[in-house]
Amino acid sequence: MIPQDIKKRVSELHRQINDHNHRYYVLDDPEVSDAQYDRLLRDLSELEEKHPDLITPDSPTQRVGAQPSEKFTTVQHQERMYSLENVMTEKELDEWHERLLKSAREIKPDIKELELVVEPKIDGAAVELVYKKGRLIVGSTRGDGLTGEDTTGNLKTIRAVPLQLIGQKVKVPARLDVRGEVYIAKEKFNEFNRQQIKAGKEPFANPRNAAAGSLRQLDSKITALRPLDIMIHGAGSIKGKSWKTHSELLEAIFRLGIKTVKPVKVCRNLDEVKKYHTDLLNKRDEIPYEIDGIVIKVNDLELQKRIGVRTRTPRWAVAYKFPAREETTRLLDIKVQVGRTGALTPVAILEPVKVGGVEVSRATLHNQDEIKRLGLKIGDWVVVKRSGDVIPKIIKSIVSKRTGKEKSFKMLQKCPVCQSGIVLPEGEIVPRCPNLGCPAQVKGALQHFVSRGAMDIEGLGSKIIEQLVDKKLVKDPADLYEPAIQGKLLQLERTGDKLVGNIMLAIDKSRQTTLPRFIYALGIRHVGEATAVILAEQFRTIENLEKASREELESIHEVGPIVARSIFDFFQNPNNKKIVLRMQRSGVKYDPVIGKKKGKLAGQVFLFTGELAKFGRTEAKRLVRENGGRVSATASKKVDYVVAGTDPGSKLEKAKKSGIKIISEKEFIKLVM
Q1: Which residues are catalytic?
Q2: What is the pTM (predicted TM-score) of this model?
Q3: Which residue ranges form the domains of the chain, and what is each CATH number?
Q4: What is the CA angle 73-74-76, rounded to 5?
Q5: Closest among 545, 477, 473 to 511, alpha carbons compared
Q6: Which of 53, 436, 441, 448 is the most buried (most CB within 10 A)?
């Protein structure tokens, strides 16, 4: 039995140390010296060493790092973590604001000006912290927005991350998922890099890379040595408490003991937003951490939900980026690379130059029209910027520096890899290699197929795939599941029994996947991970998707005619169907269940027609999916309910003829709410 006075002392030390952490890392107002703080932590460590049963996951001593992990496990976000749409100019901001006002007035016609909240956009690594009953349960990266990597051990090493919420003047919610950015302050980053160089190690290019790399250390004891910090800018799932505005939510999060982004300003109109942007841009170099713009959000949380989201980005928020940092360098050459869909893309080969702390030696030129617009010649001096402070881009050539030795670029007439004559599809500006067997396309398709977001086959890196294709051992993804693949892998350079054995295990593991991953892995042009989820929800099986008409595909709100044509054309190709069938015959299976298996609408299929008064169509569909139901694009026997709004289309007549139950918007609300 542990004496009661020992338990009380440990509890009191928890309280004191957590309070001092909060004052130092969140409030920037310490009350004790470093030596006094160290004594308290040492006292707690000694007591826990004598009484190991008193060690809890939220103990302040548990920040030093745990035993190294073999790999990261995944975490499903309760609510999707969206990325933000970027606007780069004042004109783009005005256009976004105009669209936003239009959407808001469709919901609340009396709105004259929207109250917006603005905050700095921290250039860090996006994470989520999940608190249940005030205790940190799990921390994770954003990942693809739906699933992230469990980095709880690494996040616990950050002193500004409370392991237990304080709850001063604010009721602690039953569940609180907060989202923010992990970063390294400029001064601490510079000192950290000096230590790296002193130790004979490579310095990091910039604070963001250092922060992201530190979070992905399998040994959290290494992470504990890195000067990481965090700021929270929003929340996901919240249970047991609610707030009306984003600014109130941030204030409550801060009162719960979590460090929030600052300075935050509530703006009454767009002019105030623009002034905030200008003021922050002028102070950019004085701010102790890297920022690359500001984030603008609708302040009203209920209105945020009503305005809704696109596939990947919320409509109610935007990132207004700062002008990118620019440098000048030489354009040494223009090479043409072939992508997995056959697209021929010119790439600028640059004399290496550092732009915003990152060495740049290549930049995409998109297409020949872009080269013509920029007036580029090989040998030019050019201005390079990191678009959005990330992607290298040439913005202009410096004509005054020309010597006359510069050369014009002409797009190739033959594929540089397989020498097939290139084609320019009608209505497009990107030339393509028409040869599906082109090694460049095959390599790109295979690299996409085995990637983490697709079939996730570990060990099959680009070098192995290049050998497999160059030696003509593999011609399509289905070949990876044939029994002969093990022998083919053993024929390659630098592949022994152990490596090949691990790859075979990864291939076997990938045979059991999910329908969205399977669809995404096929590499259909224009179909990303988010669209794959939508298609999986809509069609439930790969066979249904194969049979879908262009009209049926186009009727899906999130798809549209261009994507629909791409999907339809993909499955019209007999070779593509054959590849899918071969994979299935080789044992590739997928889980057809998408989204929640339980909910008020579980197993029920809805079709919407006409205008809805309370909801936008996208929001109504989202409510169906969140409650376990499915949404159909056509009136078929599989549909349980047709929700008819004002001015319904031909779908209503088809539904009546098919005997499908027709309900009003009010009846739908009763079902879902």
Answers
A1: 121
A2: 0.62
A3: 4-61 (1.10.287.610), 95-321 (3.30.470.30), 324-435 (2.40.50.140), 439-510 (1.10.150.20), 515-591 (1.10.150.20), 605-672 (3.40.50.10190)
A4: 155
A5: 477
A6: 441
